[in-house]
Amino acid sequence: MPQPARSIQAAPGAIEPLPQPYLLFLGDVAEPAYAKTAFGLRDWAGERCVGEYACVGAKVSTGLRYLTPEQAFAEGARSMAIGVANPGGHISPAWVPQLLQALEAGLDLIGGMHARLADIEPLRSAAARLGRRLLDVRQPPPGIPVASGRKRSGMRLLTVGTDCAVGKKYTALTLVREWRALGVDAYFRATGQTGILIAGQGIALDAVVADFAAGAAEMLSPDAGAEHWDVIEGQGSLFHPAYAGVALALLHGSQPDVIVVCHAAGRETVLGHPGYPLPGIEETIELNLRLGRRTNPRIRCAGVSLNTAKLDAAQAERLIAAESERLGCPVADPMRGGEAFRRLAQACLR
């Protein structure tokens, strides 16, 4: 299976880029799934990660070099990014000595947790004394406007889904990689904490006050040249019992010219909500197009991104071909790539 590209750079726009390169902090996690932010950065921003650091006894590693904050700073790191996404999004008291060590070594701290770095007194005092920054990527930027609905110049693609965690971020990143190889002017626009750390900037839509969420999506992808594409990371699903609101705000505010529907093969119910059956792909296409026409009457669906991680290569190939024939559009798994994904990428540009 092909590895993701390691060349996603911060896009120009109104949002201040994050200090890079990163030292990745793994805390004391023992379960790899809780270090998904660190693994995402390793896979998609490897050239901007100088190494990893962790508490004594940590059981998870990204495979990057183990460096102390002092060593990382000497090798060019300018921040330590918390690569953990644990249940509840909390910052463990056991991490505080290592976080203080990073500040003392000259690094800013970047957190993607629900907990705020600045709410932890030892960190707040040390940062003020040392002139370091505590950067919470789930803290929306100031001055987000209410959405105007004004059509912006440039082209936009939004990845949407039948559910959460179906591959919207990886699909967007892989499309940018494919398009840039073709010479297309394209940027990845991040809307979640891992995507923001990969891109170096963005807005965490799930942290924006509801009235301003569509405005945040407008702010995220400003006016651009006629041939420029913003590829916007989708969030949630219009069918999700908890997160439909952020998905709709993103759809209206981003005003996509093109959507790609993302789905996890074999999933039958909404993740974490077993009482809710997953919608069909056709139903997902229809609803996103119907609601998306409110702010962009020319919206279209270019194809489907199918997460086949639970299938072997032969099973995935058969399913991708069958679904493409059934739906009458390109279907591909971005992590498997190949000719199927190239067809999907080309269909988005038509």
UniProtKB/TrEMBL annotation:
Residues 146-339 form the D-glutamate N-acetyltransferase-like C-terminal domain. InterPro entries: DgcN-like (IPR011669), DgcN-like_C (IPR035086), DgcN-like_N (IPR035402), P-loop_NTPase (IPR027417). Pfam families: DUF1611, DUF1611_N. Residues 70-140 form the D-glutamate N-acetyltransferase-like N-terminal domain. It comes from the Bacteria. Signal peptide: none annotated. This is DUF1611 domain-containing protein. It comes from Luteimonas salinisoli. The lineage of its organism: Bacteria, Pseudomonadati, Pseudomonadota, Gammaproteobacteria, Lysobacterales.
